[in-house]
């Protein structure tokens, strides 16, 4: 099966930052086999394609890669806003999450996946519990995902052992499943929720099975201080000394990180998932993203969960990433639009250790989205990259493809029943004993 | 003509912050004559209405009031991003704007009004040139507006005089026109673009004709320093000493304002238009909004122009206002959702000196919008105010009413031809000699 998409504005997201005004792209099975500008194309013959799709001037870009989140928590959207982080987490989130079972997780995850797909995310990282349930939603929906059973070690040793076994078993069972759309990681929740020996046990398993590691790190100033109080060092040195960074690692947040710690992140090629909305909303602070970028540290974008965002639209994260560092540093040159786009696509894929997606290039798997530019807020229409970052939202997305297969068509998910999922999410929420 | 809207979730935006789960609202001619919750309603009879509209569970809220902008500059959306402010303004914006004529202004303003209406803004402040053209677009579209010919005094005296005459004449001619939907202000552009005597001449006219004043103030640190260098005082003292604050005044930006200056703003009841996106994007900084609110200073929200935003969606401004002050101050309690909503509605109306709009209450003119909550990103649907601020965008707006008259129906402007306006905006942009 060979399909030619033509007559679109194609933003490749590749290293040269190329974009094609009269773009075409040929997809064979799940891969891009040709891409370029029709104005300089030679030797194309329609006879060679099974199907030709006219993009009618639509903008095409790589699907967003959301590198940090907890999908099931979409059920708690708006449940407890505008509270101090500790109270929000300990008195609101944890007691509610304590009631989550596989059905709750299915309802919340399906809700999240509908929202992500409709707003142009083609790959998301999920760190949560009941991960087989999450994996099944991923399989059914057509989206791509990087999944990890997040483990919190604040429990008796036998429970620690059980959780770690579960996490490892899940990672091994689901890695490369769903036609390769699912990959897995190992995930100690955070330095402040996992004792040092437990983090070591987890990364031993990761090393043994060649799985990358995902962990929350230095989200709040308080948590950094606690790490110093408990272990005599800041989180970056702590994790390095535990051997975590010997493995491919993605840290989430990295808001409170000093220059010396950046040296370490840079040295070990640790990837950073920047979660601008969540860090703002919880009052955690503003991550030193311009410094990370200057050092060549790979920075990607995450929504975190809808309980602290309160949405899962990567256009919003990219816009915010392009805006807040300019304002906070009083530097209008910080995080230009092209870098924000890359953080959400190419660098996102690199952050979750996928090499086959994140840009539209020959040989890549065809994960892409289309946007209808024929709307007032995207005019004049001469600067698609600027408009994608500063002016568009996820609601401008029309079609979504993963591995060359269409999974959203004209704003409708093809493999998920949105109406039923909305109904079930509300039912699942009502069933929880609200605290 | 008496119309009853029923079966909606009505967010009144009034002082008690009331919202009705089974809301109804009765509009007679252009005003709200009844509003409440059907569950506790007594004595309603359908016979008394000319028309009954079933809101089918939609959320209803006051239309947004956008208190600072330059609509015509939508033509320059994405034209010059990611540049230092001085270069952006002097080398990009001003040379392009220097070529604007009435046709350009019409094209840009119509584009802006389509975008604002479709994203739920029912009233906008515009400070620009060719204001009769702007007023005509307002008249035709059905939107409400507060208009001022912004005058820059960096020119020979005779031109200053001509501009001031033009501004005064415009203000007198259009005040209370378009069925009262248009009101006018006088607007010296900024302390750094108007010599002191010229500001005094302008406010003399404002005082004479009882018009309020709108002015840019303390947007950047550099501009504050320049004011000190040129006049020996910071902008707030400078404007107070010139007598500006003796008149009802709305200042735009107010990013770099110290405690002493806040005392003055508070003393004179000066209103502040907070433009979070624009201040971030241009690297101007983050306004001390939590301090303003603590003092009871009226803070409202503005998009500024699409050249520095790059959109005109007040949902985005409200979201950003609710987010950035939490992050910048590491205080998750700063600017809760309810305050962000009020900044965009009630306090917006107060900032542009309108008492008949900004909340849904008996006696108010009926400027309101509806949102379809039946979407994944607004679920679970139990917290409409949270979801409006943190999760919705302007693209969730379905219907818009101004003075009880419907002007957007199912996401389409009823009195503007969006397709033609998009075409004309692109044509007008192409005609400019790009610098």
TrEMBL record, chains A, B:
Zn(2+) binds at residues 68, 70, 216, 304. Keywords: Hydrolase, Metal-binding, Zinc. Belongs to the metallo-dependent hydrolases superfamily. MTA/SAH deaminase family. Its EC number is 3.5.4.28, 3.5.4.31. Residues 59-406 form the Amidohydrolase-related domain. It comes from Caldalkalibacillus horti. InterPro entries: Amidohydro-rel, Deaminase_MtaD/DadD, Metal-dep_hydrolase_composite, Metal_Hydrolase, MTA/SAH_deaminase. Its cofactor is Zn(2+). The keyword Acetylation does not apply. Substrate binds at residues 97, 149, 189, 219, 304. Binds 1 zinc ion per subunit. Catalyzes the deamination of 5-methylthioadenosine and S-adenosyl-L-homocysteine into 5-methylthioinosine and S-inosyl-L-homocysteine, respectively. Is also able to deaminate adenosine. It catalyses: S-methyl-5'-thioadenosine + H2O + H(+) = S-methyl-5'-thioinosine + NH4(+); S-adenosyl-L-homocysteine + H2O + H(+) = S-inosyl-L-homocysteine + NH4(+). GO terms for molecular function: 5'-methylthioadenosine deaminase activity; S-adenosylhomocysteine deaminase activity. Pfam families: Amidohydro_1 (PF01979). This is 5-methylthioadenosine/S-adenosylhomocysteine deaminase.
């Amino acid at each position: 099966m060979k399909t030619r998409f033509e007559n679109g504005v194609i933003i490749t997201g590749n290293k040269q930052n190329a974009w094609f005004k009269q773009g075409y792209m040929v997809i064979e099975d799940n891969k891009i086999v040709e891409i370029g500008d029709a104005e300089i194309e030679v030797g194309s013959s329609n006879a060679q394609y099974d199907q030709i799709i006219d993009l009618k001037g639509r903008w095409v870009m790589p699907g967003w890669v959301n590198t940090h989140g907890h999908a099931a928590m979409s059920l708690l959207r708006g449940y407890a806003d505008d509270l101090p982080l500790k109270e929000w987490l300990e008195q609101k989130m944890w007691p509610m999450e304590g009631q989550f079972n596989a059905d709750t997780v299915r309802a919340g995850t399906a809700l999240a996946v509908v929202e992500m797909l409709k707003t142009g995310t083609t790959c998301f990282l999920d760190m949560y519990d009941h991960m087989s349930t999450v994996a099944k939603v991923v399989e059914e929906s057509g989206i791509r995902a990087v999944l990890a059973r997040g483990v919190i070690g604040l429990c008796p040793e036998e429970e620690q052992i059980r959780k770690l076994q579960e996490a490892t078993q899940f990672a091994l069972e689901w890695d490369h499943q769903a036609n390769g759309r699912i990959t897995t990681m190992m995930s100690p929740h955070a330095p402040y929720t996992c004792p040092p020996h437990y983090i070591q046990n987890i990364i031993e398993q990761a090393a043994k099975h060649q799985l990358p590691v995902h962990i929350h790190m230095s989200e709040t100033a308080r948590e950094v201080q606690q790490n110093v109080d408990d272990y005599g060092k800041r989180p970056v040195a702590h994790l390095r000394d535990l051997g975590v960074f010997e493995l491919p690692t993605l840290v989430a947040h990295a808001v409170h990180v000093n220059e010396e710690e950046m040296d370490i992140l840079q040295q070990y090629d640790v990837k950073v998932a920047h979660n601008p909305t969540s860090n703002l909303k919880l009052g955690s602070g503003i991550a030193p993203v311009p410094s990370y970028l200057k050092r060549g540290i790979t920075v990607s974008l995450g929504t975190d969960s809808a309980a602290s965002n309160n949405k899962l639209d990567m256009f919003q994260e990219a816009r915010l990433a392009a805006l807040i560092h300019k304002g906070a540093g009083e530097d209008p040159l910080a995080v230009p639009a092209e870098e924000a786009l890359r953080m959400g696509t190419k660098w996102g894929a690199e952050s979750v250790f996928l090499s086959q997606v994140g840009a539209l290039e020959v040989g890549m798997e065809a994960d892409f989205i289309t946007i209808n530019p024929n709307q007032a807020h995207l005019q004049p229409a001469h600067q698609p990259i600027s408009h994608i970052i500063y002016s568009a939202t996820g609601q401008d997305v029309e079609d979504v493809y993963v591995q060359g297969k269409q999974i959203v068509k004209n704003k409708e998910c093809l493999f998920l029943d949105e109406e039923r999922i909305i109904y079930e999410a509300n039912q699942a929420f009502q069933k929880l004993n609200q605290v």
